[in-house]
Amino acid sequence: MSADQLNWLLNLFLSMQLSIAVLVIVSIGLAVVFGMMGIINLAHGEFLMLGAYTTLVGVRAGLYLWLAMLLAAATVGVFGLIVERLLIRHLYGRLADSMLATWGLSLIMAQGMVLIFGPSTQGIATPTGNIQIGNYSVAYYSLVLVGTAVALLAIVFWVFTRTRYGVMARAATQVPEMAAAVGINPDLVNAGTFAFGSALAGAAGALLAPLVGVMPTMGQAYIARAFMTVIVGGPGVLSGTAAASVLLGGVENIVSYLSTPFFGQGALLVLAIVLLRVLPTGLSGRWQRQL
Amino acid sequence: MTRESESAETAVQRAGGRLSGELVWTVGLTVTVVAAAGFIPEFRALQFTSWAIYGLLALSLALVWGHGGIFSFGQGAFFGIGGYAYGISAINLSGMTGETFSAVIVAVIIAMLAAAVLGYFMFYGKVGDVYVGIITLATSLVLFTFMSSTAGHKYRVGEALLGGYNGMAGVPPLSYGIPGTELTALSPGQLLAFTVILACIVTLAVRALLRGPFGRVLAGVRENELRTQLLGYDIRLRKLIVFAIGGAIAGLAGAQHAAWALFINPIVFGLQQAAVVVIWVLVGGRKSLPGAFLGVVLVEGLASFLGAGGGSATPIILGAVLIAVVILLPQGLVPALHAVAQRWIPWLRERPAEIPFDESANIPDVLTETGGRRRTGVLEGVDLYKSFGGVMAVENVTLAFRDTGVHCLIGPNGAGKSTFFNLLVGRYRPTSGKVLFGGAPITGLEPHERVRRGLGIKLQVASIFPGLTTFENLWLAAYARLRVTAAATERAAQILDWLELRARAGDAASTLSHGQKQWLEIGMVLGGEPTVMLLDEPTAGMTREETARTAALITKLGKSISVVAVEHDMEFVRQVDVPVTVFHQGSVFARGSLEELRRDERILDIYLGRHRKAIA
User: Fold this and answer.
1) B462: closest CA among B414, B406, B520?
2) What number of C-beta contacts closer than 8 Å exist between A and B?
3) Does ipTM come in above 0.90?
4) Shortest CB distance from B126 goes to which of A107, A266, A280?
5) B548 pLDDT exceeds 90?
6) Using CA of residue A53, residue A59, residue A60, residue A61, what is the dihedral sign?
């Protein structure tokens, strides 16, 4: 194998890693809220968009990019808490209704942002730097995203296995009545989980902002893929999301690479639907330890 | 159809209490609009045409969601597919055919096929309700991204350029003519009349479909999937059919929309478009067909009043409406208004339904009237073993039940009687041994397959269709077996009489008492004309009187079929006075009449937990 071919392969591998990382980043917040609370947040894309705008405002106010991103996660987390208290809390156990209400929220948020910031795309300077692999150059920021995706998975794992809140949240998910009977307040746990999932969505928006540009409709561009990832992943918040991201992101990337992104999108949709025919409960549906 | 069953049939429709003046309204409005079409100003005619088209789209969702119970948030996908399909085929074919109506038909077929393929994967994959909502919505959004990236000359089908985000331009209007001549487009007035008539026909067709057997079974699927399945219906197929019909109607609307607007772009696949469809249906009421059109007129009328539909606040208002309706009026705006109106205007109130039966008809034994279709068969378990982990729950049980008569299985908790019951029903597979029915092995069959062979299964918790009337519950059960509307109506009436529930025929089953629900379910199982009926604790939670009546019903049943009941209640066992099998530690411990068993000291030991050497 020549050096060129090796570089080509390495480049393909890295771009695949990036696709997978983006899927993990945009869907982990959605997966936490769905897996732990059974709520489908159709405004997830707009939460992501809110995170991106917060980062934009932070950077323009002179904050370091990393600090602005942290601020974005925190802001969207608090926003999520407010939404849970005002809206979601009335809709537990009414799945279709919770989808519809968050859908309404998403319309309001997207248009609200148009009214505040205008409909056009605004950029955040991408942290510069490239790594040269033969004739190909890979942006340094792509590698950061891959690293961050892994870090986010680690944070979710840590929160749900190593913190008091996490253990309570998992107990409340598995047997809500029993959890309440041993003194866990499900209200508090649910509010916490929704805020946590929202913060992850905010972080996702912040991380994607330098890559794709910030605009009010950016949420829509990712929401479909995030949904597909979560459904294909199944009940395992962490393992399912990771496995589905690898599979869908990998296939989308290879198809896009060999043809056009047009067919990459189509391949993702077809693969997701066919997978559900074979494994209706998702990839992690039959796994013993479900996190 | 006989005269009695006809009257029972109309009565059942009244019993549902819905849609009484609906037909008159639908046809009356259509005639009015068509008559006025020539006099309406062109601008208004075009606006009303678009409302009628959107109404069809909303109707497709009301059918799929309200009546099929399928959360399809992607009706916009089939709308868009229909629009693009119309555009592509009209641009390519109208030169040859001289008209564009055939392109509409092509569009409907393509949209229906798309829905059928997607539906196949969802329903035959047994995907959960939520997932259906997300998959349909995500499909729409992926199509949005997909079609948005088709800019440039590379992406074309024949003469038609897909056009990327800007969409496909130059879509021909609805036109007629003869092959080889110039197209003659419909005038705005003609277009309005045509659209409204088509919408009326589709609405009436859907209405007829829902009132027929298909619609009733669909209602059953929506109310209680498991029960529908245990009655022997294939629910996957029915969901697929309703989803495909919904796709076809959405595709029809999409084709008309493209012909109306003269172009089509990917925005039809967008999130906002999908939300608007849901809002129309929520406002008009999920189950109401005319409500779908009313919802469109109210929402679009408001939007056009507020700023010609293009106001920048429109999405915010739509979002607020969506949240408000979901939280405040989950049943929908129009049904809520209707309920208020009913309170104040007496003649709008639904009259309590009566089911007229031929009073003189004597129905001595419901089971003798099955017209020679009765099957017979002995149910037996042979050398059955069932272990859970290391525990032997059923150990070496061989039992056969006679082809008529009642048989009780009793025993203390953990004796293995429920496990044995579940082996017969098919919820468990035995570790070893066989279950035979009429001599043929059924050990590996699913519960619904056993039902089709003549087993009737009633589980412990009453499983009925709570939202349907008592009569409709029984009708669905009878239709599953008979497959003839009139015969099922007659049969359901008989069973209703037999259960002495005639007074409650038109009431929702959810309003019955606990005991009545159990009887209703026994009646439903009976509707399947079983050879053997398996009952799990039929009297659990019943009052003394209810228990006595259940015992009487079951004794009567035992005269013509075989009934196997697992029971805890000794009072019930005493009343039916039939052979009893006592289970203990996974095996058959004793058999005989209750009197004989009462004299057996060992039985008392088991129940009271006394330990005597004599047992060993």
Assistant:
1) B520
2) 135
3) no
4) A280
5) no
6) positive
